[in-house]
Amino acid sequence: MSDVLQVRMYEQLEDTPERRCIGFLSPDGEVSWRTWETFFRHAAGRAARMQAEGLGPGDVCVLVLQSKEFCASALLAALMTGAIPLLVAPPVIQGANTSLGRILLRTVRKTRAKLVVADASLLELRDRLERSRRGTRYVFGDHALDGGDPSRVSPVAPARDDWAAYQLTSGTTGFPRVCMWKQHKVVAALDAMMGAMRLGRDDVCFNWTPLYHDMGLVNNFFLCLANGIPLVMLSPQAFVKRPALWLRGLATTGSTVTWSPNFGYAITTKMARDRDLEGVRLDHVRAFWNAAERIHLDTVLAFRDRFAAYGVRPDALKTNFGCAENVGGATFTDVDGSFAYEWVDRMALQEKRQAIPTPPGENAVAIVGAGRPAPGLEVHILSRTGRRLPDGHVGEVALHTPSRMEGYLDNQKATRRAICGDLLRTGDLGYVRDRELFWVGRVRERINVFGKKLDPSDFERALLHVEGLRPGCFAAFGVDDEGRGTQRIVVVSEVREPLARDVEALADDVRERLQQELGIDVSEVLLVPKGTLTKTSSGKRRHRHFRELYLEGRLQDNRLQLQNA
Fold first, then answer.
1. How many whole angstroms separate alpha carbon 387 and alpha carbon 373?
2. Fewer beta carbons within 10 angstroms: which end of the chain, N or C?
3. What CA–CA distance (Å, rounded) separates 367 from 453?
4. How far is it, in rounded angstroms, from Cα 152 to Cα 89?
5. E strands of 170-246, at which residues?
């Protein structure tokens, strides 16, 4: 088989032109399917318009669009021209402390983009954008690429060593880095995922995660189109407003595989009502994949118990670890089994960096496994000096992988840090037991308080149980306190709207919950409106970024007043 993404896609088109290719679930629950022939013809028309704007093989095409049908079609269109697509989170995703204009300008300059296809809401930035770099063309709105002649676009066949796509990653403290993916590395990632998940043409994948996120782009869009697997898309905004759409869509479309970060399972469990699920059966869903952030045992078990009556099976609950630097998933739960987890001694984990199994109890913490390596991959745990650690010892997660990125665009220092010999250093913390990877945090986000080493993700489980907070929308960081000789802890969280509680009482609940569950005293709780805290384009929380804003005094401007909202 070819190791070029576009060739794989065209092979599927030629093989089954009338078969279902991609479906789009509307906010009212109706699904509209496109056949391979229809989807590719529409994309070819848009590719013709892109070519008329000067886009060609090897050029960079930046897409700043909501994850709906136009974005999916424009993404395929860019690939059909032989261009290198790069997706950026659109304005609707950007929060109060993210300067989309600045990020977009720097992305365009850094990549020397030939064409930017942007959401109509960015029209107000048009003059500024067009002055920033000559040679870059901008088109705005969902109809900007209409009217092209599909017959003018011929199939492209890039070389295996050509660039397939770029991906923004991390950016937790500053400008996001740009991962560069070669064609054969992307295909290697897709082949490994197909083997680990045992996907076939009888499967149907359902995706509500955005296409600018690795999970939506690689684990769903690329994976399905390169392998002839029907894909259903629901916009992230529709999901967040009404999570029951996800479950109803799974039933309506007969989908067998689906993906979500941990917070998606949490809000679905909390918000989906029985009246919204009448007639829904989920017995046919063989894999609910959970990835992209810390996976919490109580969240997974609560989802299982809440929807067991609708057919959710324990062995359908799966976990995964991956990263943009690996072009997608690296470890996966066994298809024939359920996810793994274990209870370990909390103090030994925090102070000795050792995962010592212990019975559940006050001094124990549950760590959920992220699966075992996909075919062709190896996982190693490294000490601070690069020494390989034995099972049960916490260190940096490193991958020996055929799907590794080539590096970060124009950033040799970061590339040297990430690629060390034949290993990819991910910047994640974890340990291995019996080949199962257990993820525990990020190397550069640790909080040190009186000898305890905490990861911000440790806070999420407790915060999920505080009524009035937006699930998953928080930042936690340590601030050096010379008087105490250690760090003090600051927690920032978005609140639900409208907020029916007193802000000061809500802050007290946060402190009490973290004291009960983690045994820590929080020095400051900063409650902020929806949209203040945003994740990176690769889905990571920006704890270090918001720490910098806090130290500059800029984050405090968003604080809710200590009175009834």
1. 20
2. N
3. 16
4. 30
5. 177-182, 205-207, 231-234
Average pLDDT over residues 75-104: 80
Q: Which residues contact 469 (CB under 8 A, 6 or more apart)?
A: 463, 493, 494, 495, 496, 506, 510
* pLDDT 10s digits, 41-79: 999 999 999 999 999 999 999 999 999 999 999 999 999
Residues in the chain: 565
Which regions of 369-521 does DSSP assign to beta strands (E)? 372-373, 378-382, 395-400, 407-408, 419-420, 423-433, 436-442, 447-449, 452-454, 469-481, 486-495
Contact, 113 vs 56, CB < 8 A?
no
Cis bond before residue 498 (omega within 30° of 0): yes
Residue 346 to residue 354: CA distance in whole angstroms: 9
pTM above 0.90, yes or no: no
Alpha carbon distances (Å) from 177 to 11, 106, 112, 241, 402: 33, 11, 15, 31, 21
Task: Determine contact, residues 290/257, Cβ cutoff 8 Å.
Answer: no
Better-predicted residue by pLDDT, 245 or 105: 245
Taking residue 443's Cβ as centre, other Cβ atoms within 10 Å add up to 15
Q: What is the DSSP letter of 19?
A: S
Please give the pLDDT value at position 97: 42
Q: What distance lies between CA 290 and its chain's CA centroid?
A: 11
Q: Is 87 exposed, middle or buried (0-12, 13-18, 19+ CB in 10 A)?
A: buried
CB-CB neighbours of 552 under 10 Å: 9
Strands (E), 271-370: 287-290, 317-323, 328-332, 341-345, 364-368
